[in-house]
């Protein structure tokens, strides 16, 4: 395990010159000057350095504007599969990557050097040691200036995150389809009676559209007696955590209609109200 001064030496060895070292140190720790380096060495504990190292489980490249790899630090998985620094250093992005991905990275490198600002891009590739298996992995690369005409590129495998995001998107789509199939009126209501969301079928008899209700108070939308009754059950649901069930009558086109309402807590200081 590399800690303390040895950790700083590794950063310095990875960087081409003092300016690149200062940029790298600032990027990783927030410290930039020699005085800050001494402060870092004196003030930070073994746990601090270990934490910094744990923040870098990723591949790190030093690349110039032309896409030449000047230095490389792989992951533990790279090492386990025999991927060595000397296999990468001296190669060009155009030799190692599909043309569209190489061009996207080169454009991001140019943008980083021109603006001096962090750039982030994403792409899909098979694992370097399993190029023929066919499983694509999602990667994110962050680029920062690391010297004259050079950038530091930190590549992270974000496949698990992408899969989680896709699973969430599908779940939300299923839930939306399920809700759309329910003919009942549904409202999300804040503890003070403000409508946070509203959903109604195309054949509902609401006097105003669901979109118009959002942001309004129950007292702005309903007759006073019904509003007061509904607020009572909203408060009861929030205070007790138990579902509330009640019935009420509401005039629609001059005719009283009977409704049943169910109210359940759906979040901090809010409820879901279902009317039928």
Quick description:
With about 280 residues, the chain is α+β, with helices and mostly antiparallel strands.
Describe the overall structure.
This protein has twelve helices and ten strands. The protein has 276 residues and is of the alpha+beta class. The chain has three domains: 1-56, no CATH class; 59-181, PAS domain (Beta-Lactamase, 2-Layer Sandwich), CATH 3.30.450; 183-275, Beta-Lactamase (2-Layer Sandwich), CATH 3.30.450.20. The strands form two sheets. Strands 2-1-5-4-3 form a five-stranded antiparallel beta sheet, sandwiched between helices. Strands 7-6-10-9-8 form a five-stranded antiparallel beta sheet. Helix 1 crosses helix 2 (18-29).
Number of strands: 10
Q: Spell out the helices and strands N to C.
A: HHHHEEHHHHEEEHEEHHHEEE
Count of discrete alpha- or pi-helical segments spanning 4 or more residues? 12
Q: Which segments are poorly predicted (pLDDT under 50) over 5 or more consecutive residues?
A: 1-7, 29-33
Quickly give the structural class: alpha+beta
Mean pLDDT: 78
Protein name: PAS domain S-box protein
InterPro entries: PAS, PAS-like_dom_sf, PAS_4
Pfam family, one: PAS_4
Domain PAS: 171-241
Topology at a glance:
Elements: H1 4-14, H2 18-29, H3 34-43, H4 46-54, E1 59-64, E2 69-73, H5 76-80, H6 85-88, H7 93-96, H8 99-115, E3 119-126, E4 136-147, E5 150-157, H9 159-180, E6 185-190, E7 195-199, H10 210-213, H11 218-221, H12 224-240, E8 244-252, E9 255-267, E10 270-275
Helix pairs in contact: 1-2
Keywords:
elongated, disordered N terminus, Beta-Lactamase, alpha+beta, 12 helices, five-stranded antiparallel β-sheet, 276 residues
């Amino acid at each position: 395990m590399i800690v303390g001064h040895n950790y700083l030496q590794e950063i310095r060895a990875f960087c081409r010159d003092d300016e690149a070292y200062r940029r790298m140190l600032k990027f990783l720790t927030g410290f930039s000057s020699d005085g800050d380096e001494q402060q870092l060495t004196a003030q930070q504990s073994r746990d601090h350095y270990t934490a910094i190292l744990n923040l870098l489980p990723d591949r790190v490249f030093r690349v110039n504007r032309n896409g030449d790899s000047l230095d490389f630090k792989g992951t533990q998985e790279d090492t386990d599969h025999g991927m060595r620094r000397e296999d990468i250093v001296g190669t060009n992005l155009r030799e190692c990557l599909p043309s569209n991905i190489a061009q996207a990275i080169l454009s991001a490198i140019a943008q980083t050097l021109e603006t001096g600002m962090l750039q982030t891009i994403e792409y899909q590739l098979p694992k370097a040691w399993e190029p023929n298996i066919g499983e694509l992995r999602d990667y994110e690369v962050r680029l920062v200036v690391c010297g004259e005409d050079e950038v530091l590129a930190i590549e992270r495998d974000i496949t698990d995150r992408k899969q989680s995001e896709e699973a969430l998107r599908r779940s939300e789509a299923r839930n939306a389809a399920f809700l759309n199939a329910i003919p009942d009126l549904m409202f999300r209501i804040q503890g003070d009676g403000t409508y946070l969301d509203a959903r109604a079928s195309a054949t509902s008899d609401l006097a105003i559209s669901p979109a118009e209700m959002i942001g309004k108070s129950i007292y702005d939308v309903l007759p006073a007696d019904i509003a007061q009754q509904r607020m009572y059950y909203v408060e009861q649901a929030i205070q007790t955590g138990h579902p509330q069930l009640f019935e009420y009558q509401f005039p629609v086109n001059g005719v009283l209609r009977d409704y049943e309402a169910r109210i359940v807590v759906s979040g901090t200081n809010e409820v879901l109200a279902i009317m039928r």
